């Protein structure tokens, strides 16, 4: 069982209750879940201030807080590796909301039972809730939620009631008299459709918060943090990609420190979108940023870096996603240091600012966010070298507690143009991580069995006459079961002539196809991404690849394809409706020697921690998709074979393919 550090004193308990009467902050106790840090986003979205604290926090340190939320976590409450906690946190008299592991801990502490059940739940499931419970006011009696658990509450403590069920499993408990609530699911993520209402009910209905923590309030706090860290003299160097995050970061620094103390550097690493660097320079100069533009295309192409004591490079010959990201991240640092030298600035006198967001750190398992989260992938702005600089106190990340929608709101408040604020997110490594590099087909032992499972599932679900399924010879990055997956990509293609290779599917058929695509990773766990392949049906295993690295002609091919997709999205007014639309180059020729294929990932999300694809006929016009496919297969972009449309939610597929 969890180790307890002792009990809170009566004095600490009394002081906590007295202070809580005036407090307007929530303490989020972190038990280490991958999605746990999205809780603070949901709380702030409702204009309530919160702090992330370790689960083993001393109870007296909770005095400034009005309520407590306990996050999810990967351990079992009865396990020897269960996180430590002080039982005094349950004796403060404050309202408590336990989520996933937090509910199990709440139940366990007060004398209930938690057991590992034969039935495990991972994914979006319908649950039944008791709407008379304060937590579920305004929530339908049947609602969809994200469940990811193996342990379950089997008996509730005295004073608690069962308030939500998933079949015969208890997924909600409450002791209304003591303001104690717990849910087994994750109300903080988008896949819990009424989760925001539940959070609102707890914060305002149960706890009585006023909701006064606004964007303007937070802007002032961010500026105060910048000036406190940097001091009155030193300058800040900020790497500006031209995306939303780095642009807002530069604008915030500009407001906090003034033009003379902010050195903005735009690095053209050769992996920008078509003419992006020119557009970036024009947009940033328009808001008064003193921008230094550096063309470092050749520096990045030929870059090396040391990884685990071994020199890796050059970049334009690498096929490993992790090596590509680390070379790019470390090269950014070296270019920054050289820029300081060229400008006559001593590195010790300059801080490096980055537009790092909380999802970046969560997915990189940075200790700044959580020491327990497993690494999903290395973000370019959170490499080991960056962590060393951060530990030395030389990096400032003003947006590290922000999510994407919050950054847009802050950008608007800072006076940035609508075009800049609503620019599609673009990763720092650029198109380098949207080109799947390889020198051989991905053909692990057992793939024939995986293909057989796919065909059996297609038959079982009644799709064998309509669709063919094929295992492609590439891998993509995903997240499954709170951990990183690097697994198979599956292509579905249409068998019937009436479908015209997928171009004549009706909205109802697209919806059916999306459900089929969603079912595949749930049943065939070695698959983490599924797409529709336009054109003639492709059956069985695909073994042929086009050897691909980050050579300039390969990058240019993707730049042109990406521009076609972007132009079409703008034409159909989809840029604000879709959170992001990565366009990915696949090294699969489908019978055309030397050709590549394109995957289009339309993505709908509020927080980028979870999300869904835009289904043609529902969230995106079918004619927009048809127009993109026809343009890309007409010869407008040379060297393309097939076009695919990604139908994968997150999880299991991450936003990007690498």
UniProtKB/TrEMBL annotation:
The answer on whether this UniProt entry bears the keyword Ligase reads yes
The molecular function terms in GO held by this entry are: ATP binding; GMP synthase activity
One Pfam family named in its UniProt record: GMP_synt_C
Q: Which domain of life is it from?
A: Eukaryota
Binding of ATP, residues: 241-247
**SUPFAM superfamilies named in the record:** Adenine nucleotide alpha hydrolases-like, Class I glutamine amidotransferase-like, GMP synthetase C-terminal dimerisation domain
Write the record's keywords in alphabetical order, separated by commas.
Answer: ATP-binding, Glutamine amidotransferase, GMP biosynthesis, Ligase, Nucleotide-binding, Purine biosynthesis
The enzyme's E.C. designation: 6.3.5.2
Domain GMPS ATP-PPase intervals: 213-423
Q: In which pathway does it act?
A: Purine metabolism; GMP biosynthesis; GMP from XMP (L-Gln route): step 1/1
Cellular component, GO annotation: cytosol
Q: Which Gene3D superfamilies match?
A: 3.30.300.10, 3.40.50.880, HUPs
Self-association and partners: Homodimer.
Supply the name of the protein. GMP synthase (glutamine-hydrolyzing)
Taxonomic lineage is: Eukaryota, Haptista, Haptophyta, Pavlovophyceae, Pavlovales
């Amino acid at each position: 069982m969890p180790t307890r550090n002792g009990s809170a004193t009566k004095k600490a308990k009394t002081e906590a209750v007295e202070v809580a009467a005036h407090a307007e902050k929530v303490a989020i106790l972190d038990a280490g879940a991958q999605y746990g840090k999205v809780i603070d986003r949901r709380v702030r979205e409702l204009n309530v201030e919160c702090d992330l604290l370790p689960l083993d926090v001393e109870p007296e340190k909770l005095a400034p807080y009005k309520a407590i939320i306990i996050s999810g976590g990967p351990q079992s409450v009865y396990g020897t590796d269960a996180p430590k906690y002080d039982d005094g946190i349950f004796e403060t008299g404050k309202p408590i909301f336990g989520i996933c592991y937090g509910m199990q801990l709440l139940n366990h502490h007060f004398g209930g039972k938690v057991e590992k059940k034969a039935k495990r739940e991972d994914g979006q499931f319908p649950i039944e809730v008791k709407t008379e419970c304060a937590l579920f006011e305004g929530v339908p009696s049947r609602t969809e939620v994200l469940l990811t658990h193996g342990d379950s509450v089997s008996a509730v403590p005295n004073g608690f009631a069962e308030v939500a069920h998933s079949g015969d499993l208890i997924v909600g408990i409450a002791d209304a008299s003591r303001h104690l609530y717990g849910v087994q699911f994750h109300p903080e993520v988008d896949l819990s459709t009424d989760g925001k209402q539940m959070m609102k009910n707890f914060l305002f209905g149960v706890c009585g918060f006023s909701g006064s923590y606004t964007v303007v309030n937070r802007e002032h706090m961010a500026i105060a943090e910048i000036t406190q860290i940097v001091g009155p003299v030193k300058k800040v160097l900020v790497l500006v990609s031209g995306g939303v995050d780095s642009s807002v970061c530069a604008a915030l620094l500009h407001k906090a420190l003034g033009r003379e103390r902010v050195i903005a550097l735009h690095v053209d690493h050769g992996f920008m979108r078509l003419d992006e660097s020119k557009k970036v320079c024009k947009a940033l100069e328009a808001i008064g940023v003193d921008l230094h533009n550096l063309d470092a295309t050749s520096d990045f192409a030929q870059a090396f870096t040391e990884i685990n004591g071994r020199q890796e490079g050059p970049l334009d010959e690498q096929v490993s996603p992790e090596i590509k990201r680390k070379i790019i991240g470390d090269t950014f640092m070296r270019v920054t240091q050289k820029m300081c030298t060229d400008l006559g600035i001593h590195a010790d006198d300059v801080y490096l600012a980055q537009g790092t967001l909380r999802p970046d750190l969560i997915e990189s398992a940075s200790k700044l966010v959580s020491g327990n989260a497993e690494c999903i992938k290395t973000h370019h702005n959170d490499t080991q070298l960056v962590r060393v600089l951060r530990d030395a106190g030389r990096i400032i990340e003003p947006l590290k507690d922000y999510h994407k929608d919050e950054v847009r709101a802050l950008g608007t408040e800072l006076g940035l143009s609508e075009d800049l604020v609503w620019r599609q997110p673009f990763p720092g490594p650029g198109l380098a991580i949207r080109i799947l590099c390889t020198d051989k087909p991905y053909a692990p032992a057992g793939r024939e069995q995986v293909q057989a499972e796919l065909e059996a599932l297609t038959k079982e679900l009644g799709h064998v006459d309509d669709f063919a399924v094929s295992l492609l010879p590439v891998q993509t990055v995903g997240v499954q079961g709170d951990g990183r997956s690097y697994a198979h990509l599956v292509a579905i293609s249409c068998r019937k002539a009436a479908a015209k290779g997928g171009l004549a599917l009706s909205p109802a058929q697209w919806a059916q196809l999306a459900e089929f695509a969603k079912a595949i990773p749930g049943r065939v766990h070695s698959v983490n991404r599924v797409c529709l392949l336009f054109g003639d049906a492709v059956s069985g295993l695909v073994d042929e690849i086009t050897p691909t690295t980050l050579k300039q002609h390969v990058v240019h091919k993707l730049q042109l394809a990406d521009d076609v997709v972007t132009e079409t999205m703008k034409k159909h007014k989809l840029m604000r409706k879709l959170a992001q639309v990565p366009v990915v180059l696949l090294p699969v020729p489908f019978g055309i020697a030397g050709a590549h294929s394109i995957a289009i990932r339309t993505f709908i999300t509020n927080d980028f921690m979870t999300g869904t694809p835009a289904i043609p006929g529902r969230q995106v016009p079918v004619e927009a998709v048809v127009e993109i496919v026809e343009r890309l297969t007409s010869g407008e972009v040379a060297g393309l074979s097939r076009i695919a449309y990604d139908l994968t939610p997150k999880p299991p597929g991450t936003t990007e393919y690498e």
